[in-house]
Amino acid sequence: MGIEINIISIPMEGYDCNKPKPIVDLNTGLPTYVTDKTKADLAQEIYSEFINHSKINARYKLYIFPHMYLRSSRVNPFSRGNMPYSLHIKSFYIKFKNQGGTIALTSSNLAVRDLIKWDNMILIENETNSVINDSAQYFYTCLIEQSIPIKMFDPSKDWTKTSIELRNYSFIPDKNPFIGNYYIAPFYEDSPDIIETKITSLIRNAKERIYICAQHICAYDYSFNTTFKYNEEGGTTRKGGILKELLALQNKSLDIKCLSQTFVNENGDSHGCRAPQNKSSFSRFIKEFKRKNIGQYAANNIVHSKFIIIDDILIISTCNLTPTQFIYLKYVNIPKFDKMPGESYRGIHCEVGQFIFIKDAELCKKLIEDFMDIWNLQDTFHESNSLEKTVQKKCIKCGKNMKIRDGPYGEFWGCTGFPLCKNKENF
């Protein structure tokens, strides 16, 4: 039929090769392999088909986008290869002969072994709007041009010095400049900053509600080093982030709810939730969120969807709402890492991701219904708006601080070392 299929992915090094698990048939429940498989094992089977088998139709092409992104010498070693690959997007574009197309993105990693999470997918079918369609076509053209066909890819090469060619990145004006299909990428200079500006402007002008959902939420009052030339030391830049804009809202009638997978309170207690990688940054945000008493926060380990609803506008993305997604550094030069001897990095810091902005009251309503289903689950943790009262009173058993807790018979002193130390005293 003349259909060409292009697949863009990361090098095999980026796939998890730890903890093999059985792969079962969902219909029969029986194992589909004799031995357990890792994610790397499963990817290797697909990659090998493109590398070794000449029978694969020429219309099927697999490309590797090897760009890595880093901005700190203090980063910890990664579980999947030494460095993080920037291709974090889970996106599709289907181009039709009539020049229209279908746009899609999902929060799912599309990995067979992943645990079942609350994910979403948005599909914009038969789209002829040039603002949406052209941006997708141009993005994939740029991405493929800077990727390498799998048969030409050399996995032994040092890809920590990958060069990127910058491409023109301008938003085509529309009746509503906030509605459209946008991408962040290292070849689109300052694209994360442009997206952040659009989101903060919408938050600033919210009239009715703001619902924020992501696996990780931490884009608040952060600083980072910048290097303007490879042979110079970088300065320091501080950004408020989209969450600082949320905290600055004066409209007390707004319905504000945040839902994430990772969480810690202002004292670093995760309450059984998965803790974020940067605990201190999130703790500072949640403390201010509670102090301002502007909304409600909840967490559940199944959350993996990424979206923001502001009134009747949906911003749905493949990106988490962390500082990483909103930082673009054109010149990064890290000659050595504190915890990775012998490694260095030189290049552009920027992830690859997608943001779709849609104004649709009915779509927002349906997504809020799903949001509230997770919100109301029995195992969803809800953070109280009142700040926990930490004190200087010491535990007589372990020496850690005590704090005031609520119990069935009123407030009492509880040890912050709980559950290892269960000491409590009457208030």
What would you say this structure looks like, in words?
InterPro entries: PLipase_D/transphosphatidylase, Topo_IA_Znf. GO terms for molecular function: DNA binding; DNA topoisomerase activity. It comes from Clostridium estertheticum. There is one protein chain. This protein is of the alpha+beta class and 427 residues long. An 8-stranded mixed sheet has the order 7-17-14-13-8-11-12-18, sandwiched between helices. The protein has a 4-stranded antiparallel sheet with strand order 19-20-21-22, with no helix packed on it. It folds into 2 domains: 379 residues, Endonuclease Chain A (Endonuclease, Chain A); 37 residues, no CATH class. The mean pLDDT is 87. Strand 19 and strand 20 form a beta hairpin. It is built from 6 helices and 22 strands. The longest helix has 16 residues.
